[in-house]
Amino acid sequence: MPSTLFLGEGMSGAERAEPMMEKTCIILRKYLNKVPAAAMSEIKQEWPFFFSQKCLFSHFNLLMDVDVLQKLQEEISRRGQTILDYCATLDNPKIRDVLACYDPDSDKAACILLLLMLYFKEPKESLMLEVHPCATAVDVNTAELPGTPCLIIQGDMMKPSGWLISIEGHVVMGPHPLFLHGVAAFFSSYYVFNLEYPTAGSSTLEFIQRCFLGINPERGSKTKKRTTMNPHVSTLLRKLIDFEWAS
Predict the structure, then answer these.
(1) Does the N terminus or the C terminus of the chain have fewer Cβ atoms within 10 A?
(2) What is the pLDDT of residues 190-204, one digit of tens each?
(3) Residue 219 placed within a domain
(4) Is position 164 within any domain?
C-alpha cells in the first residue's frame, strides 16, 4: 500500500508509488468522489503520495488526458507574450504597475497570473498568499488561509523563490522551487480532489483551464451554479485572438 511505502521512504517513494496508484485509479476516484467527501487530512493519511508532484500530475493526466506541467510550459511560452503585450494596451493603472515591475529576471508565469486576476477584477487573496522567502509550512499562519486551494508564494510574487499549497486551511505540499510547477499542482488539485473553483477566483482558473490546458467542456463548470462558459473568459479569449491577428 502507498501509505506503508510512505512510512518507509517518505516522498522519495513517489516514483514507486505512481504505478501502484495508476492501477488503482478507479478505486481512488470512487474514494475521492464519495459523499460526503473525505477530509483532506484523511486523504493525506490514506494516500500521501497524492501530495507529491509526480503522483498528483500523473493522476491529473489519467483523469483529464492532459500533461498539465508540459502543457502549461508550452502555452506560457507560446501565448504568454501575447497576453503581456495585450495587457500593455489596456488603460488600467494596476495592470500598468505590474508590467512596470516586469523585467528579464521576473517569472513570466507569475506576472501573467497577476495580470489575469487584475483583468478579471478578482482579489489575489482568493487564490494566492505571499509569505517570507524562507517560510516553511510551520511558519504559515493558517488563520490567513482559505478553505479552498491556495498557492502560497515564498518571497516577491514577481520573483518567487518557492511555493507551497494549502487546502482546507492546512499546508499539504511544499516548499518547492519552480513557480510554474506550483501553478500546475495548484490547478491539478481542483480536479484530482474534485473541488469547485472559488467564486472569487473562478474566471482566472477557467482561463487557465481553457486557454492554457485546452479543457473545453461544452456544458458544466468547476464553478458553483454555473453550467456554461464564463462570458468574461470568452470575451478575453476572443480579444486575444483578435489582437494576435492584428499584430
Answers:
(1) C
(2) 999 999 999 999 999
(3) yes
(4) yes
